[in-house]
TrEMBL record:
Keywords linked to the UniProt accession: Iron, Metal-binding, Oxidoreductase
Coiled-coil positions: none
Organism the protein comes from: Ephemerocybe angulata
UniProt domain Fe2OG dioxygenase: residue ranges: 201-319
Leader peptide range in chain numbering: none
Protein name in UniProt: Fe2OG dioxygenase domain-containing protein
PANTHER family registered for this protein in UniProt: 2-OXOGLUTARATE (2OG) AND FE(II)-DEPENDENT OXYGENASE SUPERFAMILY PROTEIN-RELATED
PROSITE patterns in UniProt: FE2OG_OXY (PS51471)
Keyword DNA damage attributed: no
Length: 355
């Protein structure tokens, strides 16, 4: 017996937004809350700051996801990043291919459609089979910290993509600054002290990923296991996801294993826990499976629909690559996982994801 559970997203100045899905009546409701982050950043008392921090940590314990509103990144800044991303992906293939991603230690450059297959598997043979059967229908461009002495970003010529480099480096720094504030809220919510993570994330070993999901015939997305991006969890501490209005992101309800649409909410950022933060917290904070599926296609003839183009930008936040990730204080005993070097972990996951 199924009943409809409601998923309510409240946003300051807007009416409540309600999402419903058919789930077993005995299961727990699954909610991705909208949290007003200005209450943390502009708190007038430690109690007010602590309250917002606990709201964030509670959401990360239960669903692993939040919509962050009033996060401090101006709408124009986000729109400019989207505009420059769209201009890049519109470049001819012969230009983009000169910037091809080459090495998991670098994790920089252009990734053409079909080269990546996100999955929970770490088996190269299994991943190769998944790519053959159901590759991800997306292209990406990966950007790391610019001042890295060993691994350099790959940039298109300014004549091909005016202001692209400047825009993306500014956006990278803006996202890092927000990441620091969110990690401070998590530290406070876990009773670790607000600055606990500061010296563990300062090296900015992050990855700014621009994503383009081109229009595609809907019939090509109906194979078993096929999606614009397959079900996966993220590798690092947090992901800051900027969505357009097309939609397609779905998050798995951990109680029912069904996937729930994470409908775009204007002017919010979707923030989710990654595997390293889950491991760091001894699974107190939840790294939740998610995927990108196809929205309703547009009918182009009697037999075929076309799925519309989709854009998103993901900022994958990581600890310093020399940081040891081991069970945090206040996160239970015994530790479920042995200590791991953050850089080795991230590079190992990347190495089996790409061909």
């Amino acid at each position: 017996m199924f009943t409809f559970r409601t998923f309510i997203v409240a946003r300051k100045g807007f009416a409540l937004r309600t999402f419903a899905t058919g789930v077993p009546s005995s299961s727990k409701a699954f909610t991705i809350p909208v949290i007003d982050f200005s209450k943390f950043k502009q708190a007038k008392s430690s109690a007010e700051k602590k309250q917002t921090a606990e709201e964030i940590v509670t959401a990360f314990k239960e669903s692993g996801f939040v919509y962050l509103s009033n996060h401090g990144i101006p709408r124009d800044t986000v729109q400019t990043a989207f505009h420059k991303s769209k201009e890049f992906f519109a470049l001819p293939s012969e230009i983009k291919d000169t910037l091809a991603w080459e090495d998991p230690r670098s994790n920089r450059g252009y990734v053409k459609i079909g080269r990546e297959r996100v999955t929970q598997s770490a088996d190269p043979a299994e991943i190769a089979a998944l790519k053959e059967k159901a590759p991800d229908y997306k292209e990406t461009y990966e950007i790391g910290r610019e001042y890295d002495s060993e691994w350099q970003n790959q940039w298109p010529r300014a004549s091909d993509a005016p202001l692209f480099k400047h825009t993306m480096l500014d956006f990278f720094q803006t996202c890092h600054n927000l990441h620091v504030d969110v990690m401070r809220s998590i530290a406070l919510g876990l009773d670790l002290g607000e600055s606990f993570f500061d010296d563990k994330i300062q090296d900015q070993c992050h990855n700014l990923r621009l994503l383009s999901y081109p229009p595609i015939k809907s019939s090509l997305l109906v194979n078993d296991g096929q999606a614009r991006a397959g079900a996966h969890s993220d590798y690092g501490t947090l992901t800051l996801l900027f969505q357009d209005s097309v939609g397609g992101l779905e998050v798995q309800n951990p109680h029912t294993k069904t996937f729930i649409p994470a409908t775009p909410v204007p002017d919010t950022i979707v923030v989710n826990v990654g595997d390293l933060l889950a491991r760091w917290s001894n699974d107190v904070l939840r790294s939740t499976l998610h995927r990108v599926v196809s929205p309703q296609g547009k009918q182009i003839n009697d037999a075929e629909k076309v799925t519309p183009q989709r854009q998103s930008i993901a900022f994958f936040c990581n600890p310093n690559f020399n940081a040891e990730v081991s069970c945090l204080p206040n996160c239970g005993s015994p530790a479920k996982y042995p200590p791991v070097n953050a850089g080795d972990y991230i590079i190992g996951r990347l190495a089996v994801t790409y061909d």
